[in-house]
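Summary for the lay section of the report: proteins are chains of building blocks that fold into shapes. Here we show the chain for Cytochrome d ubiquinol oxidase subunit II and then a coded description of the shape we predicted for it.
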Amino acid sequence: MHLVVVIFLCLSILLYLLLGGADFGAGIIELFTSYKNKPRTRRITYRAIGPVWEANHMWLIIAIVILFVGFPLIYTTMSIYLHIPMLIMLLGIVARGTAFIFRHYDAVRDNFQKLYNKIFVYSSFITPLLLGMIAGTMLSGKIDPEARSFYDIYMAPWCNLFSLAVGLFTVALCGFLAAVYLIGEAQDDYDKRRFIHKAGITNLLAVLAGGLVFLAAETEHIPLWRWLFGDPVSRYAILAASASLVLLWYYLFQGRKLRLRVLAGFQVTMILLAIAHHNFPDFLILQDGTRLSLWEDAAPVSTLRALGWALLSGSVFILPFLGYLFYNFTRAETAEAEQPE
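The coded shape description reads as follows.
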């Protein structure tokens, strides 16, 4: 059951980035859309993420519960040293969701709509930025268990160039995923061309942000290059992501909805695999060289067994209904599109 729990943890993190990240990316795309096109973008993104925007946070909740129950030492360490960026990220999730609801369902249309729009787009940017900074901190070895000052304990681990670079890289990936997904949601050629252009721009920004991550890692003496290219699996994953990039640009200008989405998801998956494989099963690296592992720092066997069975039985009930949710809204959108005007 230990392996089952680890698989569920890895899948929940991956799915949150692919699905929840695309939701955040919709706000990022809107943030960097021209004023005249913002209403069009809002209508399309609402149609795309409206049915499932809240369901995607299920994957984050699952990951947190797994860490809390199955890996209490890892959860405790993160909660202590990274509680500030985690709190900002959670506030961003709450603010974004609240603004998303009010700007669409508020009975009164007034100047508050402008406030809701600003909260939505800025929290959509800040939340994945903090998520990426947390991930960068977990890998960078910046957490110092011997630190004594407030800044060294709670700020220095994530307030550095490497964590910021990983955060910007995450933002670019989320924007890229959203742009690719929205190409298939656009119902006219003008909007489709806009999202194709944005997908290309965000893809280039992701490449540039990735270069910044390597530069920051070199500056702060983090062996990222050795992790990625010294490990065979990581090296092949990087090659696969690079090869998919060529195909993605080919299909991008053809507007192939399904192939683009599959390639974008594959590319992000390969990037995560390349980053995580070398250090796996280590989940958190501390400054003194201590590595908190998903194997060695797990809860007792009885706890993992109960958690594993809960995850397996829960997925039997949840996943079919989640699939039906996607299917039901897709069918409704198709019927709406086929109605004569």
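Put simply, here is one thing we learned. The first strand starts at residue 282 and ends at 285.
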